[in-house]
């Protein structure tokens, strides 16, 4: 064994830290460049499809601006009716021809890759996802940008980990760092991006602690790259709303209930739509997004503000206000256009629409209470910001990262108290449904942690905890003749036989397999005693040993039973412990943990 000096160990630690920092730096750079490219493509698509073809020019949020000069083409509803179907046709062909796993909302696919595929994502997926999502979203399809950019960052990180022959665990961490970097940069919320990547994996309020620091590094780098190109600042510009009246918590409590009900409706419509399209077995998959796009276009024909991103309408609601009827149609219409655009197999994210839906419903509730009790609810726009956070919490089970998300996106940190209350209530009331179907309940339920939890659980248990399962078995004397043993063997179902000397001390052991070599040698069986068959290299355990170490001993020699001996005297046999009893104990512990958590 080579022992490293303290200085050598220190240099090795610095080298490893530098190596991983460089990995996360590269992921951040690529994710940031991917965000820049994706935003640029979206701007081009909106200009040439929605503006140039249909004369539809939705206003952007304050933190974004048109890259190209808007046209003067008159607004044409009829082109807008069929434009999403055209986009769905092209994006559907791309996805189902080259990368079927790029359909739908990309964050859920990344969650599935984390839990079930060792963090592996095919290298072509981010490319197809980028192109297909750009076409879907810029031809009027309703969706968000976080799904595509999450898969861009995650896909490159997975590719990098695979090229460097890293382990599944390391690939998962790098993939999650890519998610955080992509989402944090495109929404100008680096802290929230890092927290989101570690929180969105689970339904329960649980963080993937290994992910937070790597995702934080990558997210900061990606955010800087993105802002160096498109400018610094938050996505939305918000008035300086303040929370000063505890009586306002009453209306916020009502808002939480409204958001949960709307979130439940959103999830049901989204997955109901997805189920309907999947059951259309007579229709080719690549045509289904076109059908969904046509349904989206029909809604957009009457309510054009429900198409594409919709961030500009929330910006208008924050600064100058929008009528209740328009906010209500924006929220409900957005639920259906998103469900048709993405649930039919189109490509896009669900966080962006959730921000718009939640903000619009928050605006509705805020304006209603402002009319009823103007002395308490003085600024209905504050309900828009809290509504954004509460709604996405209700549908995604990510209360902490969502609060930070909305605070960073709006550059408003004065509403943390009502946001915390509303998000907590939304989380508690919304645990039975989620927009991310591939979330698992806890780490215990994740295949990615199956081996780790087995070790953790078994290390906490000792052999003494299984003493009722330790069997008192008949032993064999070392001087016993083989003929006498054959008679004994014919009357027992025992498979492992401890061998004792005349002082009743354990000196060997053998199994039923070990006697096969001599059981048919009748000419010498009268000369053999059991000492000749037994092995003296005995693998034993003691009452204080943990079950993980015991299980390793079982697998060393592929044996099914171990002698349990006294702590300080390996010659005194207590009994035999079977492998199946150890595994049964582990299964009982897991079930007990699931029952407790459930």
UniProtKB/TrEMBL annotation:
Pfam family, one: Voltage_CLC
Annotated signal sequence range: none
SMART domains: CBS
Keyword Zinc part of the UniProt annotation: no
Keyword terms of this UniProt record: CBS domain, Chloride, Chloride channel, Ion channel, Ion transport, Membrane, Transmembrane, Transmembrane helix, Transport
Domain CBS per the UniProt entry, residue ranges: 469-528, 534-592
Protein name (database record): Chloride channel core
